[in-house]
């Protein structure tokens, strides 16, 4: 297993701050990855949520300072009624895994990253509606904090696995996510974020003020460059191997000029 942790650490080492979802409640795996990272990389992570998962951030402490605000987005029961969408009959009852946020500083700019792993479920209408309501709740939070004079930072970025099937008009989850003003980057090339090449689950959503600060962005299709022998022998076995030992999602990245 150590070789696989080293590969994961190598990928993380290319970036300044990374949001990670589906971290096991047992931290042994995360600690193993940490052991292969340069000492300048620090960790901050949540307690377990749905499916016994944690969320985490890894950041280069030589470049990025972690600030005081760390927490989760939790909608009080009295506000559940505000999480509603036209045509959606399901009721919002809270997140399956509360979005985890952390504040950072680069030079003189502060920013808040919110890591998301939306309800997985299946393709039933009720499951789709549940994911859409969670996406809308994230967008609503960002919109409300952006309009608050007490907000810690107006540079809000929500990123992670929204379980969006397609970024297109008519997709219930996508339209819910952008309803309150969050934007998604315009992709010049269509590289799917899952190794099955059929979905755009992972996204980086930001407030309009961030758009002018984007230098470039993309999806790192790491599966094209590792284990080539396994790929040549059996595509099915290759994908199973990646899913278990590395990831069935590709990292989505963005370069900002703050």
Briefly note the structural class of the backbone.
alpha+beta
Distance between the termini: 38 Å
| Oligomer kind | single chain
Largest sheet: 5 strands, mixed
Low-confidence parts lasting 5 or more residues at pLDDT below 50? Answer: none
In the CATH scheme, what's the topology name? Deoxyribonuclease I, Chain A
Mean pLDDT: 91
The CATH architecture classification is: 4-Layer Sandwich
Helix content: 25-40%
Shape: globular
Strand content: 25-35%
Order of helices and strands: HEHEEEEEHEHEHEHHE
CATH superfamily: Endonuclease/exonuclease/phosphatase
Placed side by side, the strands forming the largest sheet appear as 4-5-6-7-8
How many discrete structural domains?
1
CATH class: Alpha Beta
Q: How many DSSP E strands?
A: 10
Round the Cα radius of gyration to an integer and report it.
18 Å
Q: Tell me the number of helical segments per DSSP (H or I, 4 or more residues long).
A: 7
